[in-house]
Amino acid sequence: MGEDARAKFISIDDRDVVPLFVDGWPDVFMRLFTASEHAEMVEFFRTHEGDEQEIMSYLIASALCDENGDLLFSAQQSDDRQLLRTKSLRNLTSAFEKIMSHNGLTDDAMEAAEGKLNATVN
Q1: What values do phi and psi take at 28, rounded to 5?
Q2: Would you identify the CATH topology of the domain 15-121?
Q3: What's this model's pTM, rounded to 2 decimal places?
Q4: How many C-beta atoms lie closer than 10 Å to residue 112's C-beta?
Q5: Which residues contact 84 (CB under 8 A, 6 or more apart)?
Q6: pLDDT tens digits, one per residue of 12-66
Q7: Phi, psi at residue 71, to the nearest 5°?
Q8: Domains of the chain: which residue ranges?
């Protein structure tokens, strides 16, 4: 019975995909981050501290997806991040804030995660 529960747990995709409404953008969606994606993001944020545009485009690329949860951009690709930065700052900021909120990430939560990561690494 334990194996059935484990298999069921592993098979679920608990990253809900919800519409992301931004003025002037087509129908796009955003998804939740996995714990692994969040750890990569914290590391990226730490190495790009002070570069708000790079951080914003990385986070948006990590969440912006189609209705099936398939990412539209790769956060790892600087060309994709650059393409996102060609969009209006108002719309990028709106998307950024909605993605942060959907993922339960506030500035305080990100700072706490960075502190825990630093404690683990050091």
Answers
A1: -130, 170
A2: rbstp2171 (3.30.2220)
A3: 0.80
A4: 11
A5: 57, 60, 61, 73, 92
A6: 888 889 999 999 999 999 999 999 999 999 999 999 988 999 999 999 999 999 9
A7: -65, 145
A8: 15-121
